[in-house]
Design goal:
With 96 residues, the protein is mainly alpha-helical. The chain has one domain. The protein contains 4 helices and 2 strands, in the order H-E-E-H-H-H. It has a two-stranded antiparallel sheet. The model has no long low-confidence stretch (mean pLDDT 76).
Length: 96
């Protein structure tokens, strides 16, 4: 039982790290975070960004825990919606 809990925790940690990297280095249509900040941060900007990212990751982890306990029909519809959004951004992101 201990290995199952640790593997679940490890998988969740990897997902959160992936989302974190996507937020920092990913593109959302024509917007990229790195281009928006010009690649330079002052001390205050870096501190605020760190706090915002930590809060986003905490909300993501809480949301993921809630989603795992949600009814199966809701989870399925949410997955299909997320897949549709991701595919539309992938294929049509240049025009946004």
């Amino acid at each position: 039982m201990g290995s199952s809990a640790s593997s679940t925790s490890g998988a969740l940690s990897k997902r959160i790290q992936w989302i974190d990297l996507l937020l920092l280095f990913g593109t959302f249509g024509s917007f990229t975070f790195a281009d928006a900040v010009g690649g330079r941060f002052g001390c205050g900007e870096a501190a605020v960004t760190t706090v915002v990212l930590v809060l986003l990751m905490a909300v993501l982890a809480l949301g993921w825990g809630w989603l795992r306990q949600a009814p199966p029909r809701f989870r399925s519809s949410l997955r299909l919606s997320a897949l549709g959004i991701l595919l539309s951004v992938f294929f049509f992101g240049r025009w946004f």
